[in-house]
Write a structure and sequence with these properties.
The complex is a heterodimer of chains A (about 120) and B (about 110).
Chain A: E1 5-7, E2 10-13, E3 19-24, E4 31-37, E5 44-50, E6 53-57, E7 65-68, E8 75-79, E9 88-95, E10 107-108, E11 112-116
Parallel strand pairs in A: 2-11
Antiparallel strand pairs in A: 1-3, 3-8, 4-5, 4-9, 5-6, 7-8, 9-10, 9-11
Chain B: E1 5-7, E2 10-14, E3 19-24, E4 32-37, E5 44-49, E6 55-58, E7 61-65, E8 71-76, E9 85-92, E10 99-101, E11 105-110
Parallel strand pairs in B: 2-11
Antiparallel strand pairs in B: 1-3, 3-8, 4-5, 4-9, 6-7, 7-8, 9-10, 9-11
Amino acid sequence: EPEVTQTPSHQVTQMGQEVILRCVPISNHLYFYWYRQILGQKVEFLVSFYNNEISEKSEIFDDQFSVERPDGSNFTLKIRSTKLEDSAMYFCASSVGFPGRSYNEQFFGPGTRLTVL
Amino acid sequence: TQLLEQSPQFLSIQEGENLTVYCNSSSVFSSLQWYRQEPGEGPVLLVTVVTGGEVKKLKRLTFQFGDARKDSSLHITAAQPGDTGLYLCAGPNQAGTALIFGKGTTLSVSS
């Protein structure tokens, strides 16, 4: 069964460093997303991406964050200068269409645990 | 602002008991999804409900979408230890471009 994959599973970095989190969405999906989940808190939307551009971003997704689809299979999230409060699980998801249209379900990857020291 | 409130936050029961968890909002959602999340893993989709009043069954799990499409419930019959996990409800935002999640219900089933 196709699945979303993410690498690395765990990333430890120093405050102020840049990190790139990688995702391979399901191959026939067109819409890609990043979410994060701070320990003990709910899953929060960061950004959605379609047709090589951002469709929507949340207040969390400030100038420190960027996303890219560098090739036909990878989808990346870059945090330019990490802060302590960026420590969280980051989940990539993909869907055939947007969730508000024909209930296109999102399928989530296993996550990358980012720890900022 | 669309919010999804889940209750109870925690639920600890014995194997064989029945339980219901709730997902409520003051906003209308075009659909609601239920996910299950294990510690350290991503949410896994269980079901999507779309039509007001809809009931879907997945083995021992029964999902219901409220008539007004503002709430949903998950009922588990004869819970088993393997049902232990975090149950999340989620729905599309008004733009339809992202999912809004509830905080989840942590279920613990002991044998």
